[in-house]
Each structure stands twice: as C-alpha cells, then as structure tokens.
Amino acid sequence: MNILVTGGAGYIGSHTVRLLEKTGGKVVVYDNLVTGHRNAVKSSIFVEGDIFDSTLLADTIRRYDISSVVHFAAYSLVGVSMIKPQDYYHNNVVGTLNLLDVMLANGVNKLVFSSTAAVYGEPETSPITENVLKNPTNVYGRTKLIMENAMADYSRSYGLKYIALRYFNACGADAAGDIGEDHQPETHLIPLILKACLGKTDTLKIFGDDYPTKDGTCVRDYIHVNDLGQAHVLALKALYNGHESDVYNLGNGSGFTVKEIIEAAEAVTGLTAPKEIAPRRAGDPAVLVASSDKIRQDLGWQSEYTDIKNIIDTACHWHKKNPDGFAG
Ligand SMILES: O=c1ccn([C@@H]2O[C@H](COP(=O)(O)OP(=O)(O)O[C@H]3O[C@H](CO)[C@H](O)[C@H](O)[C@H]3O)[C@@H](O)[C@H]2O)c(=O)[nH]1
C-alpha cells in the first residue's frame, strides 16, 4: 500500500497517518499547511502542496507509485462555512473534483473520503443510520454531500472505489501527547473548554440553551480521533480487498449536551471554565448522534475509547504538554 494522505498534517490526518504507518504501508503526506502543521508529521514523506496543483499532485502520485488516497484536505468549520460559502465550495468541491481528475488520469482509483454528520441536517430519528434523508443545514455539510454524490457517479462511470466516512465530533489526542488538536483560531468545543479551564482563553460561550434537548444545549456524539483514524485503516484495507464503494457513520452512539461536556472537562481537569450563555450559532442542528452498526458489521470496526472523561483526558494531556500547540 503506497498511500497519499492529503491534509495529513491536520488534526485527524496526522493521527490517521500514524496508524497507517503502523500497518507497514508507505505513507506520503500532501498538505498545503494552510491549516495543517509541518511538525504534526513526524516520520512520513512530506510534500508541501495544494490539491489545486494538478502538476505537483500527478508528479507525487507517479514518483511514489501511489495506489490509494486518503483525502482529508478540506475546510471543516460549520460556523465559518455559513459566512464564507465561496471558500467552502471552492476548496471542498472544486478542489476534490480536481484531485479525482488527477487520480483517475494516473490510474489511482481507491479513495477514503472524509465526510461528516453535517450531511444529515436535522434527522427525525436518533441514532442516525446512513440511509436516512440527507438535508444539510449548513454549507459545510452541503459541500460534503455534493462530493459524496459526485463520487457515487464517478464510481458508476469511471471505476472509482471509495469509502466515505461520516465523522461525528472528533476529539481527544494520541496518548503520546505529541500530536493533538490545534486550530487557529480554535472553534471546537472541547479544546475551547480546556483552554478556558487552563486560563488560555476568555470566557467560554455556550451557543444556545433553548434547543429541544434535556438541558437546552446541543447534543453531539464525541469520538476519539484514534478510533476515527483506525476506521480509515480498515476502510483502506477493505478497498484493497475489493470492497465496493460505500458510506459509513463513525460515532460512539452516545449523545452529550454542551453542558455535560463542560462538566466532564471540569471534572477531568479539576478546574472551572468561565462560561456564559450566548446566542445560537447559525447552522447548528440540535441533536446529532450516530449509529455506527454498519461499519462494525461490515469492517469490524470498534471504538477503543467509549468513556467521555477518558477521551477528554487525552485532549487535556496534549493541551497541558503543548500549551501553545505546535507553535510551542
Ligand atoms: O465555543 C463553542 C463552540 C462550540 N459550541 C457548541 O458545541 C457543539 C460542538 O461544536 P463544535 O464546533 O466543536 O463541533 P460541530 O458539532 O459544530 O462540528 C463538528 O461536527 C460536524 C458534524 O456535525 C463537522 O464534522 C465539523 O467538522 C466538526 O467540527 C455545538 O453544539 C456548538 O454549538 C459552543 O457552545 N461553544
């Protein structure tokens, strides 16, 4: 397996790269470092490049005899996608179509694709299974759903074999504590709570307490980043073994409100986060909880981290060891 990992210097990408390396495959990280970190890539071959650079992409595929791609490179912030839709359509749709063109022109037809729970919008059933109606409430989710549909069409017409993984809320960090979540600016809940507890940011804003949930705050399904990463390893192996194109949810199957996550993080740290109730954030669905039965049954995936405090503890370990993230 010679694997090209776009976005391999990012949060989920760098954790997955580490797990892919353990399989013995050759891993080539391709990242433009706009949001990724060079020092999140420890031992793989690294190519600084953009998914719009067809020449460099093609050269990299040929030079390293690449036979599959794991495609993380994308914008992924729900809130920002509502304010800057052009960036999201351009990067996530046009950029991915470009990558597919270069792959197919160079005989690479295996792809693991980062999709999202945001493709569902506000489903009526919970936990969410893959086959329910997809009606995204935000631009980010729409860009990913467009690409899922395009890949299904490419699969029928051009022999593309892909597995799309619909992530719920990725969190935590590798136990080694040398890679973790470091977004600039940070917008994700768990790192923001930890930063607030550790006095690295201002007051934490709870976006809305009038949702139809048990305490009025949004419910999400939090999954450890290494459990997500392991699903990519399994998906890739399945494609090499002739698995047909498919789509899988990835979550733990338990929902936690924003307030419950804050309480759990405060218990883990023994500290209190300064917090206040703020207006709802545009594009946020009230409840997103996954059924991951399909990937368990088809690919034998299982999550190692099921306790939310354990998950938060791994994130806390990273934040304490690296108070300034990768810049430190
Ligand atoms: O300062 C904050 C930040 C977040 N939240 C709330 O905490 C929850 C989690 O928010 P995140 O920004 O951490 O994560 P999202 O659920 O918005 O998004 C995550 O899950 C999505 C799928 O639902 C996408 O995959 C996306 O890329 C990924 O970051 C949401 O209810 C949000 O409103 C706050 O209250 N305050």
TrEMBL record:
InterPro entries: Epimerase_deHydtase, NAD(P)-bd_dom_sf, UDP_G4E. It comes from Sporomusa malonica. GO terms for biological process: galactose catabolic process via UDP-galactose, Leloir pathway. It catalyses: UDP-alpha-D-glucose = UDP-alpha-D-galactose. PANTHER family: UDP-ARABINOSE 4-EPIMERASE 1, UDP-GLUCOSE 4-EPIMERASE. It comes from the Bacteria. NCBIfam families: galE. This is UDP-glucose 4-epimerase. Residues 3-251 form the NAD-dependent epimerase/dehydratase domain. Its cofactor is NAD(+). Its EC number is 5.1.3.2. Homodimer. SUPFAM superfamilies: NAD(P)-binding Rossmann-fold domains. GO terms for molecular function: UDP-glucose 4-epimerase activity. It holds the Pfam family Epimerase. CDD domains: UDP_G4E_1_SDR_e. Pathway: Carbohydrate metabolism; galactose metabolism. Belongs to the NAD(P)-dependent epimerase/dehydratase family. Keywords: Carbohydrate metabolism, Galactose metabolism, Isomerase, NAD.
